[in-house]
Amino acid sequence: MIKKFLFSTLIVLAAFSATFAQSKTKEAAKVEDPDNLASQYFSQVMGVAVNATSNLKLYKFIYEWIGTPYRFGGNTKKGIDCSAFTKAIYDKVFNTTILRNSRDIFSMVNPLSKDELKEGDLVFFKIKSRSISHVGIYLGDNRFAHASSTRGVVISNLNEPYYSRYFYKGGRIIEPGDKEFIEE
């Protein structure tokens, strides 16, 4: 009788243990990997192709800032402008210090046409101005991340009529080892 009771108890405990292990596995599967979340967000929602050659650190950084409101002169998640957003990306993602405003940042690049742009390059705009007034970071597939004065930090398409109209040039930061780099 005692053997039957112990055997029955052992079976119940084994079943309970298996059920508990299954539920933990299901819970763990529900918790998404942050890298996977960022990849899914850019690939599916924003239409940016995130692949094995992409800089996932760049996409994660942008993902964390999406929706941050625009604030001229701002540089925090309470509000940020285009050049501060670009500067933050270069500081945190590329470990490169760039200047603070879009015109000064342009002085640090080799100018590029749209068809020469690669992920991480900069895009410059002359919006209702004769001088550069806006900057963003190119992601590929004509998409770029920036702090829009009307929508905050967003992903936009260079082919949208507004951005196509005001696009000035792309640019790639000149590295200090490059012979074209000029120290100020």
TrEMBL record:
Any Pfam family from its record, for instance, is NLPC_P60
- Write down the PANTHER family for this protein, in alphabetical order: ENDOPEPTIDASE NLPC-RELATED, MUREIN DD-ENDOPEPTIDASE MEPS/MUREIN LD-CARBOXYPEPTIDASE
Q: Which family does it belong to?
A: Belongs to the peptidase C40 family.
Report the superkingdom from the record: Bacteria
UniProt protein name: NlpC/P60 family protein
Q: Does the keyword Hydrolase apply?
A: yes
Q: Which Gene3D superfamilies match?
A: endopeptidase domain like (from Nostoc punctiforme)
Keyword check for Hydrolase: yes
PROSITE patterns noted in UniProt: NLPC_P60 (PS51935)
What GO biological process terms are annotated to this protein in UniProt? proteolysis
Q: Which residues form the NlpC/P60 domain?
A: 52-174
Q: Which GO terms describe its molecular function?
A: cysteine-type peptidase activity
Q: Which SUPFAM superfamilies match?
A: Cysteine proteinases (SSF54001)
Any signal peptide, and if so, which residues? 1-21
Keywords attached to this entry: Hydrolase, Protease, Signal, Thiol protease
